[in-house]
Amino acid sequence: MLLLTRTTPVEQVKKKTDGMTLFFADVDRNAIEVRELLKLGRHAVDTNMLFIDNLKVSAADLVGEEGRGFHTLLDGLNPERILIAAEAIGIGRSVVDRAVRYAKERIVFGRPIGQNQAIAHPLADAYAKLEVAELMMMKAAWLFDHNKPCGPEANIAKLRAAEAGFEACDRAVQTLGGYGYMQEYDVERFFRECRMLKIAPVSQEMVLNTISEHVLKLPRSY
Ligand SMILES: Cc1cc2nc3c(=O)[nH]c(=O)nc-3n(C[C@H](O)[C@H](O)[C@H](O)COP(=O)(O)OP(=O)(O)OC[C@H]3O[C@@H](n4cnc5c(N)ncnc54)[C@H](O)[C@@H]3O)c2cc1C
Prior knowledge:
The chain has two domains: 2-63, no CATH class; 76-215, Butyryl-CoA Dehydrogenase, subunit A, domain 3 (Up-down Bundle), CATH 1.20.140.10. Helix content is 50%, strand content 13%. The chain contains five helices and seven strands; from the N terminus they run βββββαββαααα. It has a three-stranded antiparallel β-sheet with strand order 1-2-5, covered by helices on one side. Strands 3-4 form a two-stranded antiparallel sheet. α2 packs antiparallel against α3 (151-175) and α3 (151-175) packs antiparallel against α5. It is elongated. Residues 39, 42, 47, 196, 199-203, 205-206, 209, 221-222 line the site of flavin-adenine dinucleotide.
């Protein structure tokens, strides 16, 4: 596991984020108790609560520079946000496709439900929002690929994509009506999966805090 540890006491460093070191440590079950947490979705990957006591980590397992672990970790945050944005857009597109297919096939009162604008417009809107989110995601990815700063763009891409993806899932569930709630049609699973992207790896609120502080230069609120 990738383990961020404090290796210099906080009183001896200038910034709280200094004096931390990153290791790629073995999960030694004699020193680590692992308790799995039950989740709403994301069942392909388990999420655990760890209790670490007296874990010995080899100096050879150090990642990056001693004392600079937090900064090393930061290098991974922007690409993670871009990746999460892509995931949200992918989920969103998949559910819009499914909903559109269903809206063409399902006949109620003698015509396909997709002929009603109350069904068609929200799907068109969800589609449009996914397209816009993708542009932002591509911009952030381009900047990252060209070794340019991309913090605000990666954050905004994740903010908009998580929103657009979840909205698309919600519309898909609604379009399928009762079947939207049933496991058989899969959209309920995408709905659950997509909900997480508004929380992790960074919440929508913390993205807005970052934009407020670092882009708009407003005083930090927390
Ligand atoms: C399935 C899953 C997998 C995860 N995997 C990982 C992982 O691999 N590695 C890892 O490090 N983390 C992981 N996380 C943790 C995830 O990054 C955090 O849950 C997320 O960043 C939110 O932090 P928190 O849970 O501590 O919420 P809190 O900080 O307790 O916040 C709770 C709520 O209050 C809001 N809030 C808090 N402070 C403010 C403020 N100042 N202004 C406005 N709103 C505020 C938050 O936005 C949030 O909505 C995972 C989480 C989940 C759900």
